[in-house]
Amino acid sequence: MAGLNKVILIGNLGSDPEMRYTASGTAVCKFSLATSRKFTGKDGQKQEKTEWHRIVAWTKLAEICGQYLSKGKQVMIEGRIDYGSYEKDGVKHYTTDIIAENMQMLGGPGPSNRGQEPEPPFGPPSGGTPEDDIPF
After folding, report:
1. Are 49 and 39 in contact (CB under 8 A)?
2. Fewest beta carbons within 10 Å, which of 3, 34, 95, 124?
3. CA-to-CA distance for 62 and 9, rounded, in angstroms?
4. Is the pTM of this model over 0.85?
């Protein structure tokens, strides 16, 4: 029986992405993503809870994230949960990361897109295909 490990998050970057390269030259980009939900507590008061997620992107997606994302930008991340652990000073620490497999910028807050919709870094150029280039 096969399983499914899929996560979809929509939130805002809590910091600028951190780009690095492995010894073999593979790009890796890490950043934090905040997601919030609003609810009514048992006392009837409106409340908001924010969760922080550690996002890790690899290869070409890492380079795109490192180039186009910045603190405050709103994005959708599709990926999978990855659990890990490490030992520091004799104490074992556990980690939960989201390994990004797809990223879409949603045009939320961010320094480079205030007052305008951002131009996507990939996909068809704005303006579409000229009529003369349509094959039918």
Report:
1. yes
2. 3
3. 17
4. no
Strand partners, 82: 97
Closest CA to 55 of 111, 110, 107, 14: 14
pLDDT tens by residue, 40-54: 999 999 999 999 999
* Torsion sign over Cα 21, 24, 25, 30: negative
DSSP state letter for 133: G
Name every residue whose Cβ is closer than 8 Å to that of residue 80 and which is 6 or more positions away in sequence.
5, 6, 7, 98, 99, 101
CA 35/CA 54 separation, integer angstroms:
11
Per-residue pLDDT at 1: 75
54-92 pLDDT, tens per residue? 999 999 999 999 999 999 999 999 999 999 999 999 999
Q: Whose CA is closest to 59, among 101, 120, 93, 90?
A: 101
Closest CA to 78 of 107, 46, 102: 102
Alpha carbon distance 79, 31 (integer Å): 14
Query: Phi and psi dihedrals of 102, rounded to 5?
Result: -155, 145
